[in-house]
Amino acid sequence: MSKQGILTVVSGFSGAGKGTLMKALLKKYDYGLSISATTRAPRAGEEDGREYFFLTRERFESMIEQGELIEWAEYVGNYYGTPKKYVEEQLAAGKDVILEIEVQGAFHVRKQFPEALLLFITPPNANELKSRLINRGTESMDKIESRLHRASEEAVFMKEYDFIVVNDDLDECVERLNEIIENEHSRTLRNDSFIEKMSKELMAFKKGDL
Amino acid sequence: MSKQGILTVVSGFSGAGKGTLMKALLKKYDYGLSISATTRAPRAGEEDGREYFFLTRERFESMIEQGELIEWAEYVGNYYGTPKKYVEEQLAAGKDVILEIEVQGAFHVRKQFPEALLLFITPPNANELKSRLINRGTESMDKIESRLHRASEEAVFMKEYDFIVVNDDLDECVERLNEIIENEHSRTLRNDSFIEKMSKELMAFKKGDL
Questions:
Q1: Do B152 and A191 count as a contact with CB atoms less than 8 A apart?
Q2: Predicted local confidence at residue A115, as pLDDT
Q3: Per-domain boundaries in chain A
Q4: Which of left, alpha, beta for A76 (phi over 0: left; psi -120 to 50: alpha)?
Q5: CA nearest A201 in B: which residue?
Q6: What pTM did the predictor assign?
Q7: Where does residue B33 rank: exposed (0-12), middle (13-18), buried (19+ CB within 10 A)?
Q8: Do B149 and A205 touch (CB under 8 A)?
Q9: Does A58 lie at the interface with B, CB-CB under 8 angstroms?
Q10: Chains A, B: CB contacts under 8 A, how many?
Q11: N or C, which end of chain A is more exposed by having fewer CB within 10 Å?
Q12: What's B1-31+96-210's CATH class?
């Protein structure tokens, strides 16, 4: 079926378990994970080209100007963005690429890659989201409240995604994500050339050929 | 995720292996298979309500008039059609239903069930289709030629389907079909009520609640 790689954007509520999910998915299946670029300083143990591409502000701003980023944003004084080159190379080579990205960024990606597949990860219900955030035990109640508030804002955008994937059981969710992306290769819209080829071959059979 | 059953229409070229595929799919997974109604006489071994609902012309025509058929057609002097009642009952009970139906019928189904999932089964290429028709050894070359001609006409409609499923390996194809239908439950368009519920729950969290 379709030979071009599929660009999948994965978003989801903070606390939905995206990070763990992505790690498990990439460990089990062969996807390209796009590495973001940032102007923030590397933390202890972080490596350039592994966690992030660490860039100067000048370099990052020149990439913005040159249109070399699929999407970018500024948080707390630092730039974060997705370099276009890696994604395009992987897709052209037939490799499926996953971008883990927040809601606004997802829609920027779709503008540039209209055929991107947008997946939204959610816990089965809001109380479960709250519990997960609390059970992490790493954040103040204030911080958790602000994450829940943000989730309520993001929920409005869920309907713009192609699939809503409930993360209840990690392993099941990994399989679901993988299947959705796999099956996407069979979507008719991605198989114009197969259909054209099949039609041509069928029409080439002449009466009396057999 | 979505509780309503999904109505899947499976079409494909004659010789694509739909029959074998459907049998294997229904043996392994729990789908409702809609049983067609017909006015043709039962053949030896056929049972009313198993292969077909065998009806009189009067009964069939009254079903047409009453809008009790999702789609119907007349072939060689006999009516064939899909009773609506069984399909609607199964879907309401949350059961996924499969209709194996030809191209024109598929579009009639979609008109009445716009959310139906349309799958098209095809061999990997036209020569393979020809070989399979010849290797069946049950039909004259004339008949095979006319099937291939019909396939070339049907190929035009492939692009109206949601997914193109290549039947190369039977077991793989059964899994693919099952996964596509399973995943369809996670499609955003089928999860309006989940999204609404999640949004409401998230908005109900008040500042200072934690």
A1: no
A2: 95
A3: 1-31+96-203, 35-94
A4: left
A5: B126
A6: 0.90
A7: middle
A8: yes
A9: no
A10: 138
A11: C
A12: alpha beta
Of A134, A179, A201, the CB nearest to B126: A201
Task: Return the pLDDT at A208.
Answer: 65
C-alpha B185/C-alpha B115 separation (Å) is 11
Q: Token digits for B106?
A: 């598929």
- Here the tokens at position B163 are 């997914």
B33 shares contact with chain A (CB less than 8 Å): no
B91 near A CB under 8 A: no
Q: What residues of chain B lie within 8 A of the CB of A204, using their CB?
A: 126
Interface subset of B 110-169, CB within 8 angstroms of A: 120, 122, 125-127, 129-130, 134, 141, 144-145, 148-149, 151-152, 155-156, 158-166
Comparing CA positions, the residue from A155, A160, A171, A153 lying closest to residue A122 is: A155
Which among A24, A21, A9, A37 is positioned nearest to A111, based on CA atoms? A9
User: Do A186 and B163 count as a contact with CB atoms less than 8 A apart?
Assistant: yes
**Which chain A residues contact residue B176 at CB under 8 A?**
183, 186
Q: What is the mean pLDDT of residues B117-132?
A: 95
* Interchain CB distance below 8 Å, A152 and B202: yes
| pLDDT tier, B206 (very low <50, low <70, confident <90, very high otherwise) | confident
CATH of domain A35-94: 3.30.63.10
The whole-number pLDDT of residue B210 equals: 63
Q: Closest approach of chain A CAs to the CA of B174, in angstroms?
A: 13
Question: Residues in chain A with pLDDT < 70?
Answer: 1-2, 207-210
Place of tokens 């294997």: B24
Query: In the numeric block, which tokens belong to residue A184?
Result: 């996407």
Residues in chain B: 210
Q: Contact A1/B163, CB-based, under 8 Å?
A: no
CA dist list (Å): B156 to A166, B71, B190: 37, 21, 28
Per-residue model confidence as pLDDT tens digits over B35-79: 899 999 999 999 998 889 999 999 999 999 999 999 999 988 899
Q: Looking at residue A172, what is its pLDDT? A: 96
- Residue B164: its pLDDT value, please? 97
Strand spans (E) along A76-175: 78-83, 97-100, 117-122, 163-166
- Is-same-fold flag (B1-31+96-210; B35-94)? no
- Write down the CATH number for the domain with range A1-31+96-203: 3.40.50.300
